[in-house]
Amino acid sequence: MSGTLILVRHGQSEWNLKNLFTGWRDPGLTEKGHEEARNAGRLLREKGFKPDIAFTSVLSRAQVTCDHILKELGQEGLETIRDEALNERDYGDLAGLNKDDAREKWGEEQVHIWRRSYDTPPPGGESLKDTGARVWPYYINEILPRVLRGQTVLVAAHGNSLRSLVMVLDNLSGEEIVKKEIATGVPAIYRLNADATVASSEILKG
């Protein structure tokens, strides 16, 4: 029997609130973000989930989200592996800029292409395809084997690093995945078959 993969995007960050491109910059969570993270933990607790291990990025907003979830689950001491392979997409020269200011500088159409195309990176940054190129090997080598051994694995990460995983799990095309929104603080549960395909999936809301 294969295990369960739990994906959670970090709670709202200060830069999400300010409409700034964040990427590898490291702002903290807003009060709403802290509460979203705690609520994710409560939802998982109510459904009886008990992770065997947790993975997160090297960015504090994902780590704090992971910490809140584990505290709500009564698992503060759970082994947690942090790796930059799970970091948010690197927005390069856009990082720290207000999205409206970026549109004024480069034009609405160009910024839309950088944000919502699959394989066109912003200046000095990564496309979603580039992000997947580091997320997928890490998932295959470090996370998936644990799930296939029957473990429940929590991954607290970012909109685009999780989008890269969802693209593979849900068998989505490049065009389909850029349209998919990953909400902050909302757990997505994937139960996998022995061949690593998805047996079932659900979004926990409440």
Describe the structure.
The protein is of the alpha/beta class. It has a single domain (9-130, 144-152, 160-203), classed as Rossmann fold, CATH 3.40.50. Strands 3-2-4-1-5-6 form a 6-stranded mixed beta sheet. It contains 8 helices and 6 strands, in the order βααβαβαααβααββ.
Quick summary of this structure?
The protein has 206 residues and is of the alpha/beta class. The protein is 42% helix and 15% strand. The chain has helices spanning 14-17, 31-46, 60-72, 99-106, 108-116, 128-148, 159-169, 174-177; strands at residues 4-9, 53-56, 80-82, 152-157, 188-192, 198-203.
What is the CATH third-level topology name?
Rossmann fold
Q: What helical percentage do the residues reach?
A: 40-55%
Per CATH, the superfamily is Phosphoglycerate mutase-like
The first-level CATH class is given as Alpha Beta
Sum up the overall morphology in one term: globular
Query: What's the helix-strand series?
Result: EHHEHEHHHEHHEE
Rg result: 16 Å
Mean pLDDT: 96
Record field, number of beta strands: 6
What amount of the residues lies in strands?
5-15%
**Strand order of the biggest β-sheet:** 3-2-4-1-5-6
Number of helices: 8
Distance between the termini: 28 Å
The profile of the biggest β sheet is: 6 strands, mixed
Structural class by helix and strand composition: alpha/beta
Return the domain count.
1
Assign the CATH architecture: 3-Layer(aba) Sandwich
Uncertain runs = none
